[in-house]
Amino acid sequence: MIAVRGLTKKFGRQEILRGIDLTVARGETLGIIGRSGGGKSVLLKLIIGLMQPDAGEIWIDGENIIGLSERKLAAIRQKVGILFQGGALFDSMTVEENIAFPLHEAGERDPKVVREKVSEILEVIELEGEQRKMPVNLSGGMKKRVGLARSIIRRPSCILYDEPTSGLDPIVSDSINRLIRRLQERFRITSIVVTHDMKSAFHVADHIAYLHEGRIYFYGTPKELEVSSDPLIQDFLLGRSERELEPVEST
Ligand SMILES: Nc1ncnc2c1ncn2[C@@H]1O[C@H](COP(=O)(O)OP(=O)(O)O)[C@@H](O)[C@H]1O
Ligand SMILES: [Mg+2]
Predict the structure, then answer these.
(1) What's this model's pTM, rounded to 2 decimal places?
(2) 152: closest CA among 128, 118, 108, 175?
(3) Are residues 41 and 194 in contact, defined by beta-carbon separation less than 8 angstroms?
(4) 11 burial class (0-12, 13-18, 19+ CB within 10 angstroms)?
(5) CA-nearest residue, atom 2 of ligand 1
(6) How many angstroms separate the Cα of 228 from the Cα of each of 23, 90, 129, 222?
(7) Which atom of ligand 1 is nearest to the CA of 35?
(8) 120 burial class (0-12, 13-18, 19+ CB within 10 angstroms)?
(9) Are 9 and 16 within 8 A, CB to CB?
(10) Residue with CA at minimum distance from ligand 1 atom 25
(11) DSSP class of 137
């Protein structure tokens, strides 16, 4: 469903991505982990066509999106929903209006159709009865749910999550992880979940890729990651800072 080949991206002289290769099969969930500032959000923005890479290919559902016209890109974007790090709700709109926004944008004018679709999604995200609330009156977890509802209202075949549990307490994080799983099962959505929350990665991902210094340093199942004896992976899993920074023992 999604394939990335030799993807590179520089900002000025800073090489963020140095040749990324990744494949996500239909219906599968790939977790991407890695240190903050490593280029995970940039990778997602490239995949959805919000940024242009310096080189490489990005295949979505059999089509290379690099160099596509804005019109063709819009059609691809319809297949791919994204949940941004902050959730990015419109503060002046109610929950219902926020969720319905992509439908209006796509030209849906029938209020009955909109209402039905919104109430179906509200049920999926378990926020029935909250549709008249304003974002300011929602908890962090609820905001994420509404953002998620907005990303899936047009039934994308892929969804990209950028740090879906960041800033949430463990219990709310767990409920978001369950929701991600439920979406996978109910709609068979192909997903990429970028996260620094290892628990979340283990919970939702079929495969995990570890992005390090602009490349995929590790790719495997959560189980394979867990038993990896690679020192870099171990440090990351245990939350240790970089080896180079540790005092070197004198010989
Ligand atoms: N639009 C941009 N212009 C310049 N630099 C950027 C831009 N977007 C991201 N960066 C830089 O790219 C690097 C990777 O950022 P990001 O993908 O947000 O990291 P991550 O999501 O892994 O924490 C950072 O150093 C960031 O400052
Ligand atoms: Mg990020």
Answers:
(1) 0.89
(2) 118
(3) yes
(4) exposed
(5) 11
(6) 21, 43, 46, 10
(7) 22
(8) exposed
(9) yes
(10) 37
(11) G
